[in-house]
Design goal:
Helix content: over 70%
Largest sheet: none
Structural class: mainly alpha
């Protein structure tokens, strides 16, 4: 099936998840779908839309996921009423960032948030007229923009270059993240080798299908588990600070963040590694 096109695999994955979702609903709470299901729905649907319908439609679907993640995050932080202008700028950055992907303006995409948004947000927060707490507010908004807009945007840009590589990354990240989660509080020395052992054969076996040189595919097999560990550790600390409990995840109370945390470090690292070594910028 993978020899045909990534969208065929995505359709099958969507069908399997739909069946599992139906079983979970019929079980009346005895079976629960993993928090990562929401993100996986979006990713597989985006790949299908990009190949069979329109890349633009797939891109704005990812923008909607970015909006949901940022909205969930901002609903959980102790943001001030005076920060409404900074919040507005943060939300408006989402269509702007994904529009930059749509028009293929990589040079502006890569600096839009780390430079211009990080300069504008403090200004608009300061417009609220209350200086007490401004440093915290700026940090909260910049943190959310970086992870839930900038990092998620890299998934869209990766999909622009290659649906196959995007699918390979999603599968590898899902497997690696699942192993990391199942092992719970085990040490990194236990988790990482198992993640590497699971992802390495996948990346090597699908290297030619994804049009990645075997050496770079091996490098990705190392980078993906490592970045998943970094992302999950960092976002776990964020969740604890926000009061998100793993046993009480609800829509709007951590499910979107939980589903994305394996991808937030991985997507930029994979994208920039491949863009540099495969010279995508020269296309």
């Amino acid at each position: 099936m993978l020899d045909t096109c990534p969208s065929m695999f995505s359709v099958v994955a969507l069908a399997v998840m739909a069946i599992f979702q139906a079983v979970a609903l019929l079980s009346k709470g005895r079976i629960e779908t993993p928090p990562s299901f929401r993100s996986l729905w979006v990713f597989f649907l985006a790949i299908t839309l990009a190949e069979w319908v329109s890349f633009s439609l797939a891109l704005w679907l990812l923008a909607l996921l970015s909006f949901c993640a940022l909205r969930e995050y901002l609903s959980l932080v102790d943001i001030r009423l005076e920060d409404r202008w900074g919040i507005l700028v943060s939300y408006l950055s989402i269509p702007f960032m994904f529009y930059l992907i749509h028009i293929e303006w990589y040079g502006f995409f890569i600096i839009a948030i780390p430079v211009y948004a990080f300069l504008l947000v403090p200004f608009f927060v300061a417009l609220g007229g209350r200086s007490k707490g401004i440093v915290f507010s700026v940090g909260v908004l910049d943190f959310g923009l970086f992870f839930f807009v900038f990092c998620v945007g890299h998934i869209g840009y990766l999909l622009f270059y290659s649906a196959r590589i995007t699918l390979l990354m999603i599968i590898a990240v899902t497997i690696s993240g699942w192993i990391h989660k199942v092992l719970g509080n085990r040490s990194l020395g236990v988790k990482l080798p198992l993640q590497l052992a699971s992802v390495f054969p996948l990346c090597i076996s699908l290297a030619s299908w994804a049009a990645i040189p075997i050496g770079h595919s091996a490098a990705l097999a190392i980078l993906i588990p490592v970045s998943v560990c970094l992302g999950r550790f960092t976002l776990k600390e964020l969740e604890q600070d926000l009061g998100i409990r793993a046993d009480r995840l609800q829509p709007g109370r951590g499910r979107t963040i939980e589903g994305l945390k394996s991808y937030l470090y991985t997507a930029p690292i994979v994208f920039h590694y491949l863009r540099w070594f495969l010279k995508w910028g020269d296309l």
